[in-house]
Amino acid sequence: MSAVVVDVRGLEPPEPFERAMEALTALPAGDELTLLLDRMPYPLLRLLDRDGYRHEDAVRDDGVVEIRITRP
After folding, report:
1. How far is residue 14's CA from residue 1's CA, in Å, rounded to a whole number?
2. Which member of 16, 18, 31, 52 has the lowest number of beta carbons within 10 Å of its beta carbon?
3. What digits encode the pLDDT tens for the residues 26-41?
4. Which domains are present in the chain?
5. pTM of the model
């Protein structure tokens, strides 16, 4: 299993969502993607739930939202 980190902090919508989707499309099954964002991506989280991805989200002490996603 490998891990990919995509930092989309500071980007204007819809670019963070688009970059996240590109990274998910390229992610092999079983690998993990970590997204670093400025805010909680609720539309993305709903899509992940709908499509069966496992994910965990947390807001770090520095205010960065970190979403760890594993492809089914």
Report:
1. 29
2. 52
3. 998 889 999 999 999 9
4. 3-70 (3.30.110.40)
5. 0.91
